[in-house]
Structures are given as structure tokens and as C-alpha cells.
Amino acid sequence: MKLSAAPVRSGFSLIELLLTIALVAVLALMAFQGYGIFARKGENKACYEKLRAHGVALAGYLGDKHTWPQEPEGEEGKPVPENQLWEWWFTTMKPYGISEDYWFCPAELRELKKLEKEGKLNEKDDPSPSYIPAKFPPGTSAPFDYPNQPWMWERQDFHGDGINKLMPGGSRIEKEYNFKALPRGAAGQGSSPK
């Protein structure tokens, strides 16, 4: 007696197709939600790395010049205009591997791009650098004489969990939840050592 072959099915049933589409949609939704979290963690890590690079550059400057970078003074005791001050910092730190893009936090740049895309970016929102260097008196040991004074810190809380700061020696970076944020344009106006 010959057995007849079972009928071969070709294609998916409607229920299988709908289940597959639903599963792919759920997985895609989970992936897109997780992307934002990972992107922000990546920005925070990039911010840390930029601050670390500043620490290495400042230590190199100290080793070469035997003093902390001394900001220029304006005429007749007036402060140097902000754009000239930042240009001075850019030029001073460039030989130590700090290009202009190292002065901007990726999280702030993302927010500025978002504002620009929405048409809400004003001329006054032209970004000042995200990181504010400390002012120390001349001398090789000056930056180490004030252990609670950061070498550099973020102008404001760009990450939503406190301001990143670079501590003496350039080796320790931590969050400071109550550290006062500085407004835009407050370059070089951080707390001076007492």
C-alpha cells in the first residue's frame, strides 16, 4: 500500500504574519527607547574624556611653564572681552592637544542642535565653551595648594545629574550636585582661590 505525501504548506498564515510583525514592532520600540539612554551615557563618557584631556594638557602646561595659565588682563583694569578670552584659552591650550571642539560638552551641543532645528536658537545662544578653567595665582604648586578647588568644571548641568568637574591633579572627576552653575558668558569667573 502506498502512503500519500502530506500536503506541503507554502507561505505563512495570516496569524503567523501578524504575530511576526507585532514581535518586530515591540523589539524595535524597546531598541529606540534604549537608544536615548545609551546616547546620553555616551555623551557623559565623552564629557569625562574631554575633561581628562584638559587635565593632561594643564599638567603639561604646568610642567613646561612652571605656572598655571594666567589669563590676560584688559586695559585700565577692565575685564578682557569674553570672545578674546576664549580665543586666548584656545590658542594657549592648542599646543597641548586641546582643539576648540574639546571645550564643548556633547550634551550641550546636542541641545543646541535641537534648538536650532526647532528654530528657537537665538544669537545670544551662541555657545560659550562648556568648561570653565579655574584661576590660580602664578607658581607651579598653586593648583595643588587648593585641594577643594576644581581645575575646571562644566558651566552648567548638561547631563541632568550634576556638574562634572576636574579636580586637582587632573586625575579625579566627580559629580557635584550643589556646585553652583554659571550662566552663559561667565568665562573665567569661577571662584578664585582664597
Q: How much of the sequence is in beta strands?
A: 5-15%
Strand order of the largest sheet: 1-2-3-4
Secondary structure: helix percent? 25-40%
For the report, how would you describe the main beta sheet? 4 strands, antiparallel
* Number of E-type strands: 4
* Cα separation of the termini: 104 Å
Q: What's the pLDDT, averaged over the residues?
A: 80
Structural class: alpha+beta
Output the helix-strand order.
HHHEEEE
Q: Please tally the helical runs, counting DSSP H or I stretches of 4 or more residues.
A: 3
Q: pLDDT under 50 segments (min length 5)?
A: 177-194
Query: What shape does the CA trace take?
Result: elongated
Any idea what the radius of gyration is?
26 Å
Question: Would you spell out the secondary-structure blueprint of this structure?
Answer:
Layout: H1 14-65, H2 82-93, H3 106-118, E1 131-133, E2 152-154, E3 163-166, E4 173-176
Antiparallel strand pairs: 1-2, 2-3, 3-4
